[in-house]
Predict the 3D structure of the following.
Amino acid sequence: MNPNDRKQRRRALTRCFFFHNRTAAFLAMSAVILNIPLNLAVAWQMQQLIDIAAGSPSAFTLPKISASLALSFAVMAAIMALGSYARPLFIERAVRQYRDYTFEQLTRKSTAAFHTENTSAYLSALTNDTISIETNYLPALFTLPGNLLLLIGSFALMLYYSIPLTLAAAAAALLPLAASLMAGSRLSCQEKKVSDQNESFMAALQDMLSGFPVIKSFKAQPEAVRLFSLRNAASLKSKCSANRTRIILQNICAAAGQLALFLVFMLGALLAIKGYGVTAGVVLVFVQLMDTAESSISQLPQIWANRRSANTLIDKLAAALSCGKEQDGIPAPHTLQDSITLQNLNFSYSQEIPVLQNITYCFEAGKKYAIVGNSGSGKSTLLELLQGGYTGYQGQIRYDGRELRSFRPDSLYNLISVIRQNVFLFNSSILDNITMFRDFPEEKTALAVRRAGLESLLAARGADTPCGENGSSLSGGERQRISIARCLLQSTPVLLADEATASLDSATAFEITSSILSLDGITRILVTHRLEEPLLRRFDEILVLKDGRLTEHGSFDSLMENKAYFYSLFTISQ
Ligand code: ADP
Ligand code: MG
C-alpha cells in the first residue's frame, strides 16, 4: 500500500477528533495551562507561610498570605470545574466522530473488498481499539503538554530557590525517566498484539453466533464453548501482558521518584543545617515541588507510551481503510441495449486451481437465462464475475461492448441488481425496505409491489408494518419478494440471482421464480439447482457448467434432445 495514502488516512482519522470540537479542546487545554502558574503560586505562598510562621523576615503578614492562598484555591476550583466540563465533552465528540467517519469510510469500500477482507478487523477497530484511544490517546493530548509545562515551571521555581538542590533533583529525576522509556516501546508492541487478538476473538464470536442453529442442532455446544474459551483466553492473555507492563512501568516510575525525593530531602536538610541560604520553608516547598515534578516525570513516559500504542491502532485502521477502495472508471449505463458477452473468460481464486475455463457466450438483452451444473462447477463464481465482484479474471466481460472493468464499481448498481439467498432487511417498515429509504412516485412503487407479488402481504399487514430485526417477522418467501420489489424499483436492466430460492419450500420457490420469469423487459440470469421442467422451459436458454467449463447451452427441449450432460443431470434429479 502507498505510504502517502496511509499517512493521509491517518491524518483524516486524527482530524475527526478536532472537527467542530476546537472550542471544547481549547477550554480543556486552557484549564490545564491556567492550572500551572496557580500550582506554582500556591507553592510559593506555602513557603512564605511556613517561613513567616517560623519567624523568618518576610514582606507579607500571616493574614495576607492566608487570604491570598484561599483566593488561589478558589480560582483553582473554578479552573477544575472548567476542565471537568470541557474535557469529557471533547472526548465524547472526538470518539463519536472517529467512529462515524470510520463506518462512513467502510461503506465506501467496494463490495469486492468485502469478499477478501476480514470484517472482524473493523469490529475490533470500532470497539476495543476505540476504547484504547478514548482512554489513552485523547486525554494525553492535554496531560502531555500539561505535565511538561508543570515540570518546566517547577524546575524554574526550584532554580530560583536553590541551584545546587535543583541540580541534584534533576540528576535524580533521570532515574525514572530512563527506566520507563525502555518499557514504553514494549508496551506499544503489546497493545498491537491485544488489538490483533481481539480481532480474532471477534471473528470467532461472529462465526459462532451466525452458526448458532447449526451448533445447537448437532449438539456441538461443548466444542463451541471450548473454541470460544480458547479465543477468550488468548485475547485476555495478551491484554494481561500489556497490563503487566503498564503496572511495572508505573511501579518503576513511582519507586525511582520516591528515591529521588528522598535524596533531595536529605541534601536540602543538610544545606539548611549548614546555612547555605536554605530555610525550612524552602526545603518543604522544594519537597512539594519535587513531588509535583516527580509525578509529572513519572507520568510522562507512560503517557508517551500510551500515545504511541494508540497511534499504532490508528495506523492499523488507516491501513485497513486504505485498501479496497472503489476504483475510478466511467459510469455504467442505466440500460442494456444489446448484450452481455463473455469472451474467453478464465478465472481462479488461487493460481493453481482454475475455476472458470475459457467461457465464451452472449446473453442477449431482455432474455432470461438459467445457469445449471453440479455443486462446485463455478455457477456462483460466474455470477459473481458478472456483477463485478472480482476483477482478476482473464478474457472479457462486455456490457453492450464495454468492458466491465472500465466501469466505476459504485455505478454498476445502476446496471445490475442481485437477488441473494439471504435478504438483508433493515429493522424498519416494509415500505422502507422496498424503497430503501428513497422517494419514488406512488404508481412506480405500487407497480413494483404488484409485479413482485407483494400486494396481498401489504393488504393484510400494511406497508408501515415493521419487518423486525433482519426481517424476523416475515417469511422467507416474503423477504425474497421484498428483495425483488427493491430490484424492480431500482429499474436496473439486468437482474442476477444465485439460488435465491434455495432456502424456500418448493411451492414458494416455484412461485418466486415464476414471478421473476414474468418480469419482461429485464435481462435475467438465474443460477438454479432445482431442475423443474415447467420452469426450465420458460428460460430462453440454459447454460450448463461442468468443472468450470460451459459444456452445453440451448433451450430445454434442444438440450434434452442432445441426450448429453444436461440430459443426465436432469434425469438423475427427477
Ligand atoms: P457452484 O456455485 O457451482 O457450487 P462455486 O462457483 O461456488 O460453485 O465454486 C466453484 C469452485 O471455486 C469450487 O471448487 C469452490 O471450492 C471454489 N471457490 C468458490 N469460492 C471460493 C473462494 N472464495 N475462494 C477460493 N475458492 C473458492
Ligand atoms: Mg453456488
